[in-house]
Amino acid sequence: MLSKFVSVWVLAIGVIAIVVRMNPEIVLKLPNGFIFYAIMGHTPPPYFDMSAWHSDEMKTWIRSGDVVVSVNAKSGTNWLLYMTHLIRVKGDIETYPFTDIMLNTPWPSIVHEPGQTWSEVKEAMFSSEIQQYWNHKDYPFRVFKAHEMPETYSKDIPGATLPIKSRRDLKFVAATRNPLDQMRSFYPFFASHKAEFRRLWGDFPPVYDNKDQMMSDFLEGPFGWCLTEYNMAWFEARDEPNVHLVRFEELKEDHRGSIVDLAKFLDVELDDEQIDRITFLSSFKEMKKVAHKFDYVLFANNENPKRTIMESGKLIRSGKSGEGQSFFTEEEKSRIHKFLDANLPKDVKEWMEL
Q1: Range with the largest mean pLDDT of 21-35, 156-170, 337-351
Q2: Which of the ends of the chain has fewer CB neighbours closer than 10 A, N or C?
Q3: Which residues contact 137 (CB under 8 A, 6 or more apart)?
Q4: Architecture of domain 49-351
């Protein structure tokens, strides 16, 4: 009797293993399923797919003159995406309205539902319904979001995929931020994701109960690259003619001047009135008034193409510099600086003014 019982269990386990192997996304239905998904070899976040940035694949969708805004996480990504869009339309949001960050400046690295492929996202992105937002005939260039690094940095890092040297016809905008402020911004960020989105992805991203949980993810876990590899990779590429690298602090210190510099890099001529309007529209005060346009609509989600990633209006926060100094204790800051000292070269730290 016992042997029969064991045989049934072995058979059941075998069947489960086959099902999971054929459809690994099924584990995301479990509570905190993203952990099991990661154990199976899928590096978090579970909704990232960098297939779009592979050199052969890029030939199928990207074109000469396109702009890739690949900013470090929580370092001004949406701010620079919005500024880049405003520059290409010269501040004329009446003629060329900004509808949603995912529609006007698509993010090719994200899939919109478990089991989806980049090919399926691309098909939706190039549908006439969606193209009207990001591929307008009057735009001097298209804009795409990324968080990846230059392929020249290291072939061993999955996120080092952007062809800054092999595709001189493309332009890349990158930005870094003081790590204390970056982590301070991260702390409420995960909790601002919609619960239904997190459930869709096995409860990822996790909501932090305390700062120590977040610090462990950065200093010992999967997000360390945000503080190290990203900054080193783009610093190494800072002098490439098709790369525009800035620090978040510089954007804050001279907002208008940063717009002038970015427009020059993008080869867009603006008069003083247009510069003033773009500066006004991209102020955090004005962006907060349209914060719902940064909710990230999942247009390729088959169940609900109007589903969004973020709780409405939650993504645009304070945009301040220096908050990390008061947010972390002296002991916590010491831990962070010790990590940076051990993992960032001196010249990178000096450039970041750390």
Answers
A1: 337-351
A2: N
A3: none
A4: 3-Layer(aba) Sandwich (3.40)
